[in-house]
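We emphasize that the prediction below concerns an isolated chain of 256 residues; any contacts that depend on oligomerization or on bound cofactors are therefore not represented. The input was used exactly as deposited, without trimming of termini.
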Amino acid sequence: MSDDSRGNDEQLGEQMTEDVSLLGARKVQTVLAALLIRSNKVVSSDQLLPELWGDSPPRRATAGLHVYISQLRKYLATVQPGRSPLITRSPGYLIELGNDDLDLLVFRRLVREGRTWMRAGRHEEASASFWSALELIRGPILSDLDEGEIVGRFVAWAEEARRECVELLVECDFILGRHRELIGFLYDLVYEQPLREVFYHQLMLALYRSDRRADALRVYTTARETLTRELGLEPCRALRELHHAILVGDETRLAG
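Result of the prediction step, given as a token string:
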């Protein structure tokens, strides 16, 4: 592939994934999202129809799908005239992209690299990989298009993968002694995901190790009140034990 072609591929991937909402019509967005999620693989018409209409497709659903595919082709032609990555291939369609053209693929690669660096004890490199991965997934992930199986399963996977990446990043940065730098980041996380106990745990540790014991204890109070109100549950054992260790100053458990 020539340098010009490779550059065009990268531009195409960036433009298509940067803001799906530019397409306007929600069902065209859904088709594009499903094809991007399964990039380089054929997505059959039978798989796309439930993404668009669930279990109750209209009588002319197949004709409607053809219309949306046509609209998508027109959109892609404005992104990169003369070359369309959208290919008709029985029994459906596929979008051809390179390995670095889709943020999803780059995210997966960066997380794998981060894990490899962690196992090698190279936490600076691991932290950089995890931070770079998180830069690719910000805000809600296709939250208004997740009614079908392809997009819905991807959204669930992506949210869990992002949370796991965050946990690994914080673990790395703790080892590097970056407790103070993480405090604001962790406060944002517990605000965004108030039922995720691991983020309260990490925030309490970051605060304690930054000589903010009282703030760490207040975070536990907030966690307990939130979990009790929303789920009718007490904090998990790990969170309770961390709270006790902070109260009694158990440096064996709190050192880091």
